[in-house]
Amino acid sequence: MTQRQNRVPYYLQVKHSIIENIKNQSWKPGEKIPSENQLMQEYQVSRSTIRQAITQLAQEGILETKRGKSTTVKKKPSDHVKNPGVIQREKGTEFSVQIIRNVHGKKMDYAKKMLGLSEEQAVYMYERLRLADGVPIAFQQLFIPEHIVESLTDEDLLVFDFHAHLEEKGMQPNYSKEYVSASLANTYEADFLGIVAGDPLVDMTRITLGIDQSPLEYCRTKYLPTFFDFTVETRG
């Protein structure tokens, strides 16, 4: 399975598209925007994703929502309206994932601590090899609570950007915290990445919580430095 990588969450993609439609006057102040069903069909995303984008724009005063009535454009956004953020990009054109192995159990104490799970709760650990144009670029360990795994299919676990895919499964990420550091490849990782043990890697750790603060994933990904870009973008 292959898919193109896009690290921007779906609701932000929809939000920015709505902003552009208002800026270019496709939708003018006072006019109705398309219905939720129409937007879901246009952007091929879930209803919760559309609602999150609209809610944020309403909070920013760009859209106006009223119970039982259509959402309308309240005002044209300024040229500075855009979320600051962190852009992470793997270099390549076509991206895919291979599952190396999976482990299920009540051990993995460190992963459960990071996810805030109790000793009795079980975790699934998926080791995944990330590839760009058929070439290994990263070794990944993805830890998922058992109650989340129960709602996933084998195909879900082969999605390249699993974090963004959670939205489409109805598990809206509400909070993510990421750490970036450097590490050295061990023998096990090096064999899969086609490098020598001791070679440097970009080490990224991410913890994701849902809207109700329930744990969704704990992920550790080790990238070959030549295949990874990390950009922090802020706007005034």
CATH topology of the largest domain: Chorismate lyase
* Helix and strand run: EHHHEEEEHEEHHEHEEE
Structural class by secondary-structure content: alpha+beta
SS summary, helix count? 7
Query: Measured on Cα atoms, how large is the radius of gyration?
Result: 20 Å
Please report the first level of CATH classification, the CATH class of the largest domain: Alpha Beta
InterPro entries: Bact_HTH_transcr_reg, Chorismate_lyase_/UTRA_dom_sf, Tscrpt_reg_HTH_GntR, UTRA, WH-like_DNA-bd_sf, WH_DNA-bd_sf
Keywords: DNA-binding, Transcription, Transcription regulation
Domain HTH gntR-type: 8-76
Organism: Pontibacillus chungwhensis
Gist of the model:
Helices cover about 25% and strands about 35% of the residues.
How would the blueprint of this fold be written?
Blueprint lengths: L1 E2 L6 H14 L12 H8 L3 H13 L3 E2 L7 E2 L11 E6 L4 E11 L3 H7 L7 E10 L2 E11 H4 L12 H7 L4 E12 L2 H7 L6 E11 L4 E9 L4 E6 L3
Antiparallel strand pairs: 1-5, 2-3, 4-11, 5-6, 6-7, 7-10, 8-9, 9-10
Helix pairs in contact: 1-3, 2-3
Description:
There is one protein chain. By secondary structure, this protein is α+β, with helices and mostly antiparallel strands. It has 2 domains: 2-83, Arc Repressor Mutant, subunit A (Orthogonal Bundle), CATH 1.10.10; 88-233, Chorismate lyase. The protein contains 7 helices and 11 strands. It has helices at residues 10-23, 36-43, 47-59, 109-115, 146-149, 162-168, 187-193, and strands at residues 2-3, 63-64, 72-73, 85-90, 95-105, 123-132, 135-145, 173-184, 200-210, 215-223, 228-233. A 7-stranded antiparallel beta sheet has the order 1-5-6-7-10-9-8. Helix 1 (10-23) crosses helix 3 (47-59) and helix 2 crosses helix 3 (47-59). The longest helix has 14 residues, at 10-23. The chain is globular, with a radius of gyration of 20 Å. Keywords: DNA-binding, Transcription, Transcription regulation. Residues 8-76 form the HTH gntR-type domain.
